[in-house]
Amino acid sequence: MSVLARFLPRRGVPTLVVEPMRRRHLSGIYPIEDVSYPKPWTPTVFHSELQQMAAGHRSYLVAREGTEVVGYGGMMIAVDEAHVTNIAVAPAHRRRGLATRLLAELAWDAIGRGCIGLTLEVRVSNAAAQALYARFGFEAAGVRQRYYENTEDAIVMWCHGILEPPYRARLRDLCPEAAR
Ligand SMILES: CC(C)(COP(=O)(O)OP(=O)(O)OC[C@H]1O[C@@H](n2cnc3c(N)ncnc32)[C@H](O)[C@@H]1OP(=O)(O)O)[C@@H](O)C(=O)NCCC(=O)NCCS
Asked: Where does ligand 1 bind, in terms of residues with CB under 6 Å?
């Protein structure tokens, strides 16, 4: 499917909206979180992250169609680096380019804040997420052993040079809808 075709309104389906996460979205986020991760974030964690966002230290977005939350993602801002902390899409809406849209919006946000790089951790078993991140130019930089549940290793991935024109061009190619 072409990038543009993915975002064309489907008959009877409300247009996709990507906007800052708010407390009112949380009831739509929890079921996605619960089916997406072996150890989902609790409501307390989401509330804490939203407080950090209000203080300017985080950025969280939701993707919704009408009132249905279909995905979300966010990052922690640490001086000139942005650490992607969470990104998930409802199972029925995967492979529609929603995570690509969310990650592109987050990357543009990080660029707007003057961050020079993006980083994250991903489970060694999570091939889907690793494939997504590779498209954005993330590369494996190390392993945190037994990072998840004291059992599974995390791959630490980095994406450098995001302020540079070639990276901005890559982002525009990946997701024209998010381009700034
Ligand atoms: C990983 C996840 C966020 C991807 O969301 P998505 O909206 O389906 O991703 P996109 O449609 O934007 O996919 C972009 C690209 O990523 C890769 N990709 C995504 N899902 C994939 C899968 N299941 N298998 C292989 N590649 C995959 C593909 O290259 C895909 O491009 P294509 O569809 O043109 O082949 C989603 O599978 C999810 O919510 N997983 C559970 C939560 C999670 O693991 N989050 C990451 C934590 S580190």
From this structure: 36, 87-89, 94-100, 122, 126-129, 131-132, 135
